[in-house]
Amino acid sequence: QVRVVESGGGLVQPGGSLRLSCAASGIIFRIYYMAWYRQAPGKQRELVARITSLGDTNRSTNYADSVKGRFTISRDVAKNAVYLQMNSLKSDDTAVYYCQVGSNTGVSSWGLGTQVTVSS
To answer: What pLDDT sits at residue 56?
Structure first.
């Protein structure tokens, strides 16, 4: 019954913006972090951004160097949701973006991904 569902992907021109959403349900562990990864064909999966928090406390974020200043991750703890605002998109951002939900005990769940294509 565990479900992690991404949405918001699509086709956008270079310099444009997209907002990705991820909603988790059926998660029996307490969510400690939520993260976005991406993988392009022929490339290794990479961490894009991660946000860590327990309720309203101890919140922190991490970003890949390639997206710093352009992407913003946010989290709605009450809704078990995480978002990725992507601005100033480049062709190198083209990939399938995956949402990960994890505990602080090594347990995690993944979504099936949403395609982001940046092209003129």
So the answer is: 65
